[in-house]
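anyone seen this seq b4? input:
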Amino acid sequence: MEYIAERITIDDNICNGRPTIRGTRITVQTVLEFLSAGDSAKDILAQYPSLEPEDINACIKFAADLMKSNFSIKHVK
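predicted toks r here
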């Protein structure tokens, strides 16, 4: 198991290795999809009572940190 952040882990044996909120099977992607669909943090916490507000913030920070990476688009001819 790899701890990516204090609250985010990656374990090949949990959710096919997708980043999850530690101690749960709730993926970072799930939280981000709820947020992008317009759900509030309060809505998500009601849906997943095991989460804490800091977990949602950790998901947002995780995504923001990924965007700091350099990406290049390769054109294939």
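DSSP finds three helices and three strands in the chain. The first strand starts at residue 2 and ends at 3. kinda curious what u guys think
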